[in-house]
C-alpha cells in the first residue's frame, strides 16, 4: 500500500516515543502536526546533553562552558542557514516563533516611520500599500493590519478561488506600484494549499516591493531554498519541524537586515552604550536582544539534522502520497466536505473538512475518544473560514511519521461520529 | 473516555430540537458572546418585566454542548424571577467548575444536570457556559436600561 513512500516510516516511528502512547485503551493516532509536530529522541537527547554538559550563557564568557555554548548556538544558526539555502548564517535571526519573526519585520516598518534617516524601503505612509492573502494565518495578517492602521498605509489582499487556490489572475491588479511589501503564506495552514510563488515574486520585483513568505507550514514539509525562491524574507518556527517550542527563525537578506531598525532592544544587541545613546550590533545580534533560546537552538539543529538525513524531497514525496490517500479516503465519508484543494497537487497533507450536521468540536471530541488527535476550530485563520462560509473545521494533518493505517482509523472513527449524532 | 457520559440523550435532544431559539422583541438587554478558541457564537436577548425574566431569546452557532446548554437554560430560566434565574446561573456555573466532582441537584437544575459530565472536560466547559455568560451580560444591560434599577 505504501510502496510509494520513500521513507522507512516504521523506523521513523521508533524514534518518537510519544507515538507509542495510548489514549484510554486506544493507540494514539496523531494527526495534528500542523499545530505542532512531535519530537524524536534525537532532539530531546541533544538538548539534554547540552544542558547536562555545556550549559552557559553565550557570547559573554571566556570560560569553557561559555565558549561551548556559543559554539553550539552559532553552529545551530549555520545549520539552519544551510538547510534553507541561505547565503550566510548571519542572515538567520533566532526568535521565539513565526509570529515574532513576522512582527520583527512589520515593526521594522513601523519603527522606520519615526526615523527621518530610515531606509526608504521601510518608509510607509498614506498612499502606500501592503499586500497579504485571504488565506493567511492570523500571524501573517494582524501584524500587517496593525502596521497599516498605525502608518495610514492600505492593506490589500489576494483572494481565494472556490477550489482553495490563490486567485493569481488578480495579482497584477492587487499588487501595484504603490505596494511596499508583500507577505504571503507558502503553505496554508487551514486549506493545505501549497502556493506557487514565482508570479508574485516577479510582480514584486516589477513594482519594487519587498516580498516574503510565512513558511511555517513549508519549511517542515518540503525543500525550501530561499535563493531559488527569490524572496527577501521568510519566517518559520522550530516546533512544527520536529524541534522544540520557544524558537523561531526569521531569514532576511543581509542588506535588508542591515537597513532594518531593531525590534526588541536591550542586552546582547549593542556595540556601544552611553546614558544618552546606543549603537547597535550587526545582524543577526541586532535582532536578538536578551538571552536567546540556547538549548532550543541546539534542539532545532538536531531536528534539522534529522530532516536532512531523511532528505526533504523524500519527506515531501511521502506527504504528497499521504495527502492523496487522505483525500481519497475522506471523500468516501458521507456528508464530509473538504475545505481546500481536493486533489493532491500543490497540496500538503493537511486536510480540513466539515461534517454535515456535526460541529467540529463534537467531531474532535469523539475522535479523541478513539485516540485520534486532530485540530478543531478556526485554526487562527478566521478570514479563510469566512471565505468558505464556515465557523470552524476539523483538520487532520499528517507528517513524516503518519501511515495509511492511521488515516483508515480516522475514516472509521468518523463513522462513529455519525452514529452518535445520527 | 466514556462518551455516553458527555453526550447524554438529553443533550443530543436539546441540540437537535433547541427550545426557545430565535431572536424576539421586546427586549431590554442584548449580549453577543464568542468563544475565541473555536468560533462558537451566541446573540442573546433578555426581556425583563415585573422582576421576572419575561423572555430569553437567542440565535447561536456552535457545538452540541454550547447549543444544548443554551436550550436547557431557556427552559430553566424563562418565566422565573430574576433572582431565581441568577441563582440557577450560580448553581450551574458551580456545577461546571466541579471538575466531575458534582452530580448537580436535579430538583433545581432539571435537564441541566446532564452537563455534569462536561465538567470533566476543561476544553468543553466554556462551550457549556457560553449561553449563560450571554444571559448574565444581557441581564446586566437590561437592568441598567430600566429606570430606577441602578443597584445592578
Question: What's the helix and strand layout?
Answer:
The complex is a heterodimer of chains A (422) and B (152).
Chain A: H1 9-14, E1 22-23, E2 26-27, E3 29-30, H2 41-53, H3 64-83, E4 92-95, H4 98-112, E5 129-133, H5 142-151, E6 154-158, H6 171-174, E7 179-185, H7 198-207, E8 210-214, H8 226-229, E9 233-237, E10 248-252, H9 254-259, E11 270-273, E12 278-280, H10 294-310, H11 312-331, E13 336-339, E14 350-355, H12 360-369, E15 372-373, E16 375-377, H13 382-387, E17 393-397, H14 404-421
Parallel strand pairs in A: 3-15, 5-6, 5-7, 7-8, 8-9
Antiparallel strand pairs in A: 1-2, 4-10, 9-10, 11-12, 13-14, 14-17, 16-17
Helix pairs in contact in A: 2-10, 3-10, 4-5, 10-11, 11-14, 12-14
Chain B: H1 3-6, H2 9-16, E1 29-35, E2 40-49, E3 52-61, H3 64-77, H4 82-96, H5 106-109, H6 122-145
Antiparallel strand pairs in B: 1-2, 2-3
Helix pairs in contact in B: 2-3, 3-6, 4-6
Category by helix and strand content of chain B: alpha+beta
Number of separate strands of chain A? 17
Number of domains of chain B: 1
Give the ordered list of helices and strands of chain B. Answer: HHEEEHHHH
Low-confidence blocks of residues of chain B: none
Q: Note the beta-strand portion of chain B.
A: 15-25%
The strand order across the widest sheet of chain A is 4-10-9-8-7-5-6
Distance between the termini of chain A: 32 Å
InterPro entries (chain A): Aminotrans_V_dom, Aminotrans_V_PyrdxlP_BS, Cys_dSase_SufS, PyrdxlP-dep_Trfase, PyrdxlP-dep_Trfase_major, PyrdxlP-dep_Trfase_small
Keywords (chain A): Pyridoxal phosphate, Transferase
Enzyme class (chain A): transferase
EC number (chain A): 2.8.1.7
Polypeptide structure, described:
The complex is a heterodimer of chains A (422) and B (152). Chain A has 14 helices and 17 strands. With 422 residues, chain A is α/β, with parallel strands linked by helices. Chain A folds into 2 domains: 9-39 and 311-421, Alpha-Beta Complex (Aspartate Aminotransferase, domain 1), CATH 3.90.1150.10; 45-308, 3-Layer(aba) Sandwich (Aspartate Aminotransferase, domain 2), CATH 3.40.640. In chain A, the strands form 5 sheets. A 7-stranded mixed sheet of chain A has the order 4-10-9-8-7-5-6, with helices on both faces. A 4-stranded antiparallel sheet of chain A has the order 13-14-17-16, covered by helices on one side. Chain A has a two-stranded antiparallel ribbon with strand order 1-2. In chain A, strand 8, helix 8 and strand 9 form a beta-alpha-beta unit. Chain A is globular, with a radius of gyration of 22 Å. The two termini of chain A are 32 Å apart. The model of chain A has no long low-confidence stretch (mean pLDDT 96). Chain B has one domain (3-145): Alpha-Beta Complex (Sufe protein. Chain: A), CATH 3.90.1010.10. Chain B has a 3-stranded antiparallel sheet, with helices on one face. In chain B, a hairpin with a 2-residue loop joins strand 2 and strand 3 (52-61). In chain B, helix 2 packs across helix 3. The longest helix of chain B has 24 residues, at 122-145. The termini of chain B are far apart. The A-B interface holds A 23-24, 358-362, 365-366, 368-369, 376-378, 382, 385, 391-392, 420-422 and B 1, 3, 6-7, 12, 37-41, 61-67, 121, 124, 127.
Amino acid at each position: 500500500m505504501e510502496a510509494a513512500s520513500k521513507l522507512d516510516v516504521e523506523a521513523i516511528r521508533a524514534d518518537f516515543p510519544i507515538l507509542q502512547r495510548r489514549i484510554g485503551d486506544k493507540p494514539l493516532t496523531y494527526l495534528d502536526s500542523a499545530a505542532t509536530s512531535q519530537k524524536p529522541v534525537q532532539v530531546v537527547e541533544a538538548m539534554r546533553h547540552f544542558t547536562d554538559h555545556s550549559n552557559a550563557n553565550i557570547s559573554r564568557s571566556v570560560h569553557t562552558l561559555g565558549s561551548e555554548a556559543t559554539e553550539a548556538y552559532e553552529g545551530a544558526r549555520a545549520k539552519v542557514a544551510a538547510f534553507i539555502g541561505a547565503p550566510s548564517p548571519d542572515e538567520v535571526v533566532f526568535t521565539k516563533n513565526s509570529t515574532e519573526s513576522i512582527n520583527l519585520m512589520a515593526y521594522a516598518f513601523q519603527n522606520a516611520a519615526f526615523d527621518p534617516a530610515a531606509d526608504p524601503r521601510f518608509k510607509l505612509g498614506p498612499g502606500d500599500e501592503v499586500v497579504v492573502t485571504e488565506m493567511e494565518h492570523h500571524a501573517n495578517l494582524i501584524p500587517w493590519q496593525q502596521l497599516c492602521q498605525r502608518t495610514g498605509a492600505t492593506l490589500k489582499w489576494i483572494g481565494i478561488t472556490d477550489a482553495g487556490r490563490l486567485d493569481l489572475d488578480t495579482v497584477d491588479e492587487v499588487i501595484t506600484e504603490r505596494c511596499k511589501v508583500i507577505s504571503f503564506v507558502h503553505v496554508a495552514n487551514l486549506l493545505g494549499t501549497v502556493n506557487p510563488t514565482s508570479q508574485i515574486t516577479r510582480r514584486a520585483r516589477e513594482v519594487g516591493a519587498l516580498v516574503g513568505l510565512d513558511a511555517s507550514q513549508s519549511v517542515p514539509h518540503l525543500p525550501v531554498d530561499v535563493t531559488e525562491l527569490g524572496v527577501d524574507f521568510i519566517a518559520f518556527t522550530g516546533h512544527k519541524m520536529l524541534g522544540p517550542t520557544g524558537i523561531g527563525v526569521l531569514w532576511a537578506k543581509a542588506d535588508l537586515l542591515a537597513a532594518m531598525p531593531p525590534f526588541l532592544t536591550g542586552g546582547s544587541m549593542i556595540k556601544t552604550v552611553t546614558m544618552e545613546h546606543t549603537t547597535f550590533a550587526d545582524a543577526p545580534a541586532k535582532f536578538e536582544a536578551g538571552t536567546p533560546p540556547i538549548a532550543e537552538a541546539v534542539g532545532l539543529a538536531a531536528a534539522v539534522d534529522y530532516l536532512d538525513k531523511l532528505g526533504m524531497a523524500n519527506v515531501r514525496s511521502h506527504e504528497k502520497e499521504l495527502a492523496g490517500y487522505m483525500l481519497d479516503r475522506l471523500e468516501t465519508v458521507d456528508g464530509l466536505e473538504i475545505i481546500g484543494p481536493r486533489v493532491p497537487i500543490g497540496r500538503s497533507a493537511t486536510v480540513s473538512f466539515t461534517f454535515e450536521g456535526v460541529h467540529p468540536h463534537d467531531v474532535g471530541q469523539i475522535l479523541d475518544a478513539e485516540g485520534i488527535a486532530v485540530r478543531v476550530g478556526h485554526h487562527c485563520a478566521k478570514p479563510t473560514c469566512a471565505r468558505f462560509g464556515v465557523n470552524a473545521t476539523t483538520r487532520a494533518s499528517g507528517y513524516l511519521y503518519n501511515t495509511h493505517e492511521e488515516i483508515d482509523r480516522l475514516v472509521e472513527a468518523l463513522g462513529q461520529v455519525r452514529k452518535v449524532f445520527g | 473516555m466514556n462518551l455516553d457520559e458527555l453526550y447524554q440523550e438529553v443533550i443530543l435532544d436539546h441540540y437537535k430540537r433547541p427550545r426557545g431559539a430565535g431572536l424576539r422583541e421586546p427586549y431590554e438587554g442584548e449580549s453577543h458572546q464568542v468563544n475565541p478558541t473555536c468560533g462558537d457564537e451566541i446573540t442573546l436577548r433578555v426581556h425583563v418585566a415585573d422582576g421576572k425574566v419575561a423572555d430569553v431569546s437567542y440565535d447561536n452557532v456552535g457545538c452540541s454542548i454550547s447549543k444544548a446548554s443554551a436550550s436547557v437554560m431557556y427552559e430553566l430560566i424563562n418565566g422565573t424571577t430574576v433572582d431565581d434565574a441568577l441563582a440557577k446561573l450560580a448553581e450551574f456555573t458551580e456545577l461546571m467548575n466541579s471538575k466531575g466532582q458534582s452530580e448537580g441537584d436535579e430538583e433545581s437544575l432539571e435537564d441541566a444536570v446532564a452537563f455534569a459530565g462536561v465538567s470533566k472536560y476543561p476544553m468543553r466547559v466554556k462551550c457549556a457556559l457560553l449561553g449563560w455568560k450571554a444571559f448574565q451580560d444581557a441581564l446586566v444591560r437590561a437592568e441598567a436600561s430600566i429606570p430606577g434599577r441602578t443597584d445592578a
